[in-house]
Amino acid sequence: MAELATIDGVRTLAVDIGGTNVKVLVLDEGGDAISQREKRPTPRPAVPAAMIDLIVQLAERQPPYQRVSVGFPGVVRHGVTWTAPNLHPDWRGFPLDQVLEERLGCPVRVCNDADMQGFGAIAGEGLEMVITLGTGLGSALFVDGILVPNLELAHHPFGDGKTYEQWLGNASLEALGEAAWEAKLREAIELMRRTFNYDRLYIGGGNGRLLQRGDVPDDVVLVDNIAGLLGGIALWTGVVGTRLVRAPHSVGAYCPVPAER
């Protein structure tokens, strides 16, 4: 692997853990994909041991890499997972970065999955918000390219005693049908605009496709779900566009990954 790094630059294995599927691909030093995205169903029960085994299996099928970025569907603090509402309670307090480093034999950095999708989508200017629509609802907020971590909008109230995730998660889509679910999503977009006063809202995730690209407000951008993997490069470069993702003053309180070890 060291020889490969000298020839081709450092490669990053990007991993997107979801409540329905786990996806991987390899990025070159500039953040471009150099392998085909591969996905497998999320194991059930989605306990840490089964998830780690699946990630290792998927990693073995990819080209060589020297480091790993992981997007995880829950709160992550310094590589440790603290919530995983769509996976399993055993993820609370799990040192995902350390365990994967031991299994994969290279450095690993972990952040929230919506944060990682945001890194792959935002322009790095102004107040930018990201939501991902899949099994649940992920959310991220950036100010001039700097992450405001662990927003977890999914669990905030959104009418009739339900949360955003209860209204906009996949279970609600199946119960309401596409038309009623989309109407609820548009209602949520308007509420988020008034609450956060964002400059741009990026919508991704598997169910984001249900919004027609030509029928969204000017300040809403629909992004391909692959952004959740492409954003993995930012966990190592610290740059989104021309703006710092991880400014020196932000290490610790505002940083999704620990300082260099």
Automatic annotation (TrEMBL):
InterPro entries: ATPase_NBD (IPR043129), ROK (IPR000600). The lineage of its organism: Bacteria, Pseudomonadati, Planctomycetota, Planctomycetia, Planctomycetales. Belongs to the ROK (NagC/XylR) family. This is ROK family protein. It comes from the Bacteria. Pfam families: ROK.
